[in-house]
Amino acid sequence: MIVNFETHASNERTFLAWVRTAVAIVGFGLAAARLGAKNVPLWSTYLLFGAGAAVVIIAWLRMRHVRKRIDLKESLPDDDGPAEAFLLLLLMALFVLLGTFAVHVTP
To answer: How many domains does the chain have?
Structure first.
């Protein structure tokens, strides 16, 4: 049995939720632009993919950091600087992704 299995599973579910969100925004952006009768510039598509990839990569780095904290023997406070920095980066990347989505979809 994995030590702290429930906590590790929760950490991975959080990561997968970030991945699902990024994939949904990118996929919906591509579909909406294709359904709209406009020519979408190629740079906009690349920016949309890049922003989605940034969200996934930052979410993965945060998951790895939290996993290491879960495996530590000593009890640590919840206000971990790097974990909060990763979360802040994740939120910023998500807003960049949403902004890119708006640029990609709007005529």
So the answer is: 1
Yes or no: say if 55 and 16 are a contact pair by the CB < 8 Å rule. no
Beta strands (DSSP E) in the chain are none
- pTM of the shown model: 0.84
Q: Whole-angstrom Cα distance, residue 64 to residue 67? A: 5
Residue 55 CA to residue 51 CA, distance in Å, equals 6
Mean pLDDT value across residues 57-70: 92
Query: What is the domain range of residue 37?
Result: 5-105
Instruction: Decide: 90 and 55 in contact? Cβ < 8 Å.
Output: yes
Q: What are the C-alpha distances in Å from 28 to residues 53, 64, 100? A: 15, 28, 12
